[in-house]
Amino acid sequence: MLLHEGFVRPNIYAFTTRKVVLSLSRQGDDLYLCRTQFYWEIGAEPARQLQVLAIVSVYLQRQHGHWSLRNYLTYSTQRWPTHQVGLLTYRVPPGYRFQRRKARQAASFLAGIFRDFGFAPVPVTYYVAPDCDAIQHLRGFEYVLGSGLGGNPVCGFYDEVNHLVYAGGQGEAYLHELAHVINPYFPQAHPLLLTGFAGLKGGHYGHNLRYHKVRVQAYLASHSVDLTDPLNFTLLDAETNPQYVIGGIFCELALQQGGLPKLKALLGYGTSDADFYRALEHELHLRRSDLPAVIKQQLLAP
Question: Which pTM value belongs to this model?
Fold first, then answer.
């Protein structure tokens, strides 16, 4: 899990930053808590400045004479109650009132995705937290660049390697993150399409895709955006990410034209931007010049 996805992608250890150990504190026999700052040095002396990417805590444990890294999550949630519902193992903070009805909804949703795609069911561990900061802290992120700047308190992440869901502000039924269980099965899918499928199937920031279509449509009515290159349409506001909507539209079109076989084909062209446009042309018969009209038309669709 030290290489999990989440606040820093692909992961904190893949960035070419400088690192400094801020503290090393003993927690027990052969167990230490290590706080590390990941940073860049910007500019030259005498005006050189530090740009901090993150401050992260991990545990160091000695076993059989060797030291190894241990996930902060393991220790921060070791006293959290567990609830099993279908394929989902929920971990919730002490004192939290578990909403079993919502959990059953999520378990049914997850089982349905595995059934529809024909994938063998995989158990998923689901961490419930009240907001984004709480998720950061339980995973050992004391600080991340850009945190504390406000915006939507709802956020979540799916660790596709370890099959973990982190749900902030959405309780037991963060369906968007559960939809990402398909990600490992489509390693050649463009990220926008995987994001779009999750938005189409599980909503985005607590609202369904239709809600965000309306907001994107209103934005385009008063802003000039080059929709021949929708991969660059990345900004709207803290409530709606247009990338989720654009990706959802193309996944929706694939399902309308050929069901799951067509969607699976769309998700197999590669991860580069050139692959993305090739997938649209080959599977949906859409050229770049077609995209503005098609996107605007689909934004009006129910």
Answer: 0.90
Residue range 133-163, pLDDT digits in tens: 888 889 898 888 776 545 567 788 899 888 9
Phi, psi of 95 (to 5 degrees): 85, -5
d(CA 25, CA 33): 5
- Residue 272 has which token pair? 């580069």
| Tens-digit pLDDT profile for residues 175-231 | 999 999 999 999 999 999 999 999 999 998 889 999 999 999 999 999 999 999 999
Model pLDDT for residues 220-236, shown as the tens digit of each residue: 999 999 999 999 999 89
Residue 9 pLDDT: 59
Which region, left, alpha or beta, applies to residue 157 given φ > 0 means left and ψ of -120 to 50 means alpha?
beta
What per-residue confidence (pLDDT) applies to 2? 57
- The answer to whether 132 and 155 have CB atoms below 8 angstroms apart is yes
> What is the SS3 string spanning the chain?
CCCCCCCCCCCHHHCCCEEEEEEEEEEECCEEEEEEEEEEEECCCCCCEEEEEEEEEEEEEEECCEEEEECHHHHHCCCCCEEEECCEEEECCCCCCCCHHHHHHHHHHHHHHHHHHCCCCCCEEEEEECCHHHHHHHCCEEEECCCCCCCCCCEEEEECCCCEEEEECCCCCCHHHHHHHHHHHCCCCCHHHHHHHHHHHHCECCECHHHHHHHHHHHHHHCCCCCCCHHHCCCCCCCCCHHHHHHHHHHHHHHHHHHHHHHHHHCCCCCCHHHHHHHHHHHHCCCHHHHHHHHHHHHCCC
Query: Can the peptide bond before residue 81 be classed as cis, meaning omega within 30 degrees of 0?
Result: no
